[in-house]
Design brief:
The chain is mainly β. The chain folds into 2 domains: 96 residues, Immunoglobulin-like (Sandwich), CATH 2.60.40.10; 183 residues, no CATH class. The chain is 10% helix and 39% strand. It is built from 2 helices and 24 strands. A hairpin with a 4-residue loop joins strand 8 and strand 9.
């Protein structure tokens, strides 16, 4: 009798496994696990950070997950977990800055991975102690709609502290701003601040900005007059070349949407309203977003409706002066 009962239990388990496999096959390219954030930057003397592993709920089957660091100076808790439908677990990552070994000590700027594996999936969370350059490369799946990204200068290695919050509208309405019209072959609009006001960006002060019809703002007019020797620079190399903020990949060269600005008592506001997506200009999906430069150094980037299927670079650049990305660069996850 015990043998029959055991066989029935094994048979039931096999049926459950087959059903799970069939569900996975019927959902191609759909990942069962979500890892957030996608990257992890430890700043200054920070030693502990956390991330979440989430069961997306595509199936009712529980998923066994193992979590292991790739370097001995990283420790994670827990190392194993069983996730049911819509369950999530918070994983603690401890960075041992005092780690040493006879062959190699813990380096000043270090990069490693935390591997998150299940039977069907393998994920890697990249971890670094290098500065967070607040730059993310998007290939669709843009998670910025109705988000505000606030960058406030601090004393950290990252230079800014980033805070993300939900919004429903702009603080400053576009109706009270001055529209910009781009003339033929004019790709940037030179804006000089009035009343001796200056914008602070990575510790430097600027009284002039160059507002591009392609969705970026530079503080030195460098990108239009310099080219890389040999091969054409990549979008990431162009982004890091000059002091720049890449807001969103748009193409408003034909003034199809509206780009406008307003200098207020405490800040400069630049608004992009219903502007087309770069390389998807004929789509009905348009983009509306805004940036606020506070004269104290704070920068708020506010997104309302944006094309989630756009591809491009979004973030900050202090300007390397060369067509190359910083050697310690690890892409950010702007909205964890």
């Amino acid at each position: 009798m015990d043998v029959v009962q055991t066989l029935l239990q094994v048979f039931a388990f096999i049926l459950q496994l087959i059903r799970f496999i069939l569900v996975i096959i019927s959902l191609p390219n759909v990942e069962q696990l979500q890892i957030t954030p996608k990257t992890m930057h430890f700043s200054n003397e920070e030693e502990v950070r956390t991330f979440e592993v989430i069961h997306r709920g595509w199936t009712d089957t529980k998923i066994a997950v193992t979590i292991t660091p790739s370097k001995p100076w990283l420790e994670v808790t827990p190392n194993e977990v069983m996730l049911g439908k819509n369950d999530k677990v918070t994983v603690q990552v401890y960075l041992n800055r005092q780690y040493s070994h006879t062959e190699k000590s813990y380096p000043d700027f270090a990069t490693a991975k935390v591997n998150i594996n299940s039977f069907f999936e393998r994920h890697s969370l990249r971890v670094t102690t290098a500065p967070d350059y607040y730059t993310e490369t998007f290939d669709k799946n843009i998670d910025l709609p109705y988000k505000s990204l606030s960058f406030v200068p601090d004393n950290s290695i990252n230079f800014y502290k980033l805070t993300v919050k939900d919004i429903s509208d702009f603080r400053t309405k576009p109706e009270v701003q001055n529209p910009i019209t781009y003339l033929p072959l004019q790709y940037t609009y030179k804006l000089t601040l009035a009343d001796n006001k200056k914008i602070l960006f990575y510790g430097q002060s600027y009284d002039t900005l160059y507002i591009s019809c392609f969705g970026w703002i530079e503080f030195e007019n460098l990108s239009t007059s310099n080219t890389k020797r040999g091969n054409k620079p990549t979008p990431l190399e162009q982004h890091f070349y000059a002091p720049r903020i890449s807001l969103f990949p748009i193409n408003n060269i034909n003034n199809a949407g509206t780009i406008s600005f307003a200098q207020l008592q405490n800040r400069l506001v630049i608004t992009y309203e219903n502007v087309p997506t770069y390389q998807n200009e004929l789509s009905d999906v348009r983009n509306t977003f805004q940036i606020e430069f506070y004269f104290t150094g704070r920068i708020d980037i506010n997104y309302l409706t944006v094309d989630k299927n756009a591809s491009g670079i979004i973030g900050l650049s202090y300007g390397t002066g060369e067509f190359k990305e910083p050697s310690s660069f690890l892409p950010s996850d702007l909205v964890p």
